[in-house]
């Protein structure tokens, strides 16, 4: 049992068995939780609210990028060199307030 536990810990910590698409598929839920937490937190301070809004925007943009990369890798394979990657550039993605999951009104910038 101890050997199995040690082996499991090694695999989790080393991430040896995690490929590109597996990595991104695992990160998308992590990013979604960051968005949900940032949206639903009862933040009162404007500086912290601004930080939370920036986190929401960045995480949404990164989710879109990961989804695009997953589709591209599945359709075209991994870009193994900088030249291959340059031939298949990742589009620029922007997070928009119209995205699903937005549960609060935009913050009031104040005077």
Task: Name the average pLDDT.
Answer: 82
Q: Please count the helical segments.
A: 4
Oligomer: single chain
Report the C-alpha radius of gyration, rounded. Answer: 19 Å
Q: Give the structural class.
A: mainly alpha
How many strands in all?
Answer: 0
Series of H and E elements? HHHH
Biggest beta sheet summary: none
Shape: flat
Beta-sheet strand percentage? under 5%
Q: What's the helical proportion of residues?
A: 55-70%
Q: Termini distance?
A: 62 Å
Low-confidence stretches: 100-111
General description of the model:
With 111 residues, the protein is mainly α. Residues 100-111 have low confidence and may be disordered. The protein contains four helices and no strands. The protein is flat. It has a domain at 17-86.
Looking at this protein, list some descriptive labels.
111 residues, 4 helices, 0% strand
Could you provide a short overview of the structure?
With 111 residues, the chain is mainly α.
What's the layout of helices and strands?
Elements: H1 2-14, H2 20-40, H3 46-76, H4 82-87
Helix pairs in contact: 2-3
